[in-house]
Design a protein that fits this description.
Length: 95
């Protein structure tokens, strides 16, 4: 994950790890035709922030059930946990 290069360039791997008691979950919103259309960060308390790719908008919600029912219906999408696609046999991962 690389940002803009230059004077203020920072990579996620450059940041220190910090111990916490709990951490949020990352969920992905996908449609059959378009693939990922957004991401949701669900906090341990149950509320979430939804970031949509196309609109670059940020929406707050109060419960996971609101995300998986109301917002999933509004966007016509499925909500789930992201899993990286395995590279096909013979494909190499480039650094």
């Amino acid at each position: 994950m690389s940002g803009e290069h230059g004077l203020w360039s920072v990579e996620v791997t450059d940041l220190p790890e910090i111990e916490v008691d709990s951490k949020p979950e990352l969920l992905v919103l996908v449609t059959e035709d378009d693939g990922p259309i957004g991401w949701a960060i669900v906090f341990p308390e149950g509320d979430f922030w939804l970031v949509r790719n196309s609109a670059r908008s940020l929406t707050h919600g109060s419960s996971l059930s609101m995300l998986t029912t109301f917002w999933a219906t509004v966007f016509g999408c499925e909500v789930g946990r992201p899993r990286l696609v395995e590279p096909a046999a013979g494909d190499r991962i480039r650094d």
